[in-house]
Fold this protein.
Amino acid sequence: MTLHDERGGPSAAWLAASPPGLRRLLLAYNPCMPFKRSKKNYDEEALYEYAIGALGRRMRTVAEIKRLMRNRVGAQPHGDLLVEVVVARLKAQHYLNDSRYAESYSRFRKENEKFGRLRVVQDLKAKGVHGDIIEDAVRAAYENINEEQLAREFLRRKRLAKPADQKQAARIFRALVRAGFSSRVIFRILKRWDVDDETISALEEESSSHSQ
């Protein structure tokens, strides 16, 4: 799809494919706006080049790239509009895709970091990914996954072995919580390691207080 017309403005095809809110911004956008390409001011091409460089270093979500660009344009005139124009351009060229990002991120964290699904959901939310996209990506990545087995793989990766005392048991418990595993699975592992009832009760109380 052609994004610009011969005058540098948004093309008819771009306008037709855009949602109403973005269409209004594009109609208001004038490529001849005085965006000076200097240390503090960006025009569309300069900001686009910056965004491409940021995406070339690693994948990013729409919210992340917007945050980076907003930091660049600061309070310059029409800065927010310029960010939206560049984001729309990146999406049209398939450089930005939160669904693809969430799928890749979920798969990597599961296979390489051995994180549980709760940690992946939390991280994707912090990156500004929409809840529906997170739900679909995490469900697909963790389909048919045995959570207890994954938790044990995480412990092996972190070289955490059967605890010898209450302090070590608490350390393992908190590591598994941070890694995104459910309390049900964590306590099952600790009980199979014959952690004493007093320690289990104390950790269950800690877990309950954090969930309130």
Confidence is low (pLDDT under 50) at residues 34-38.
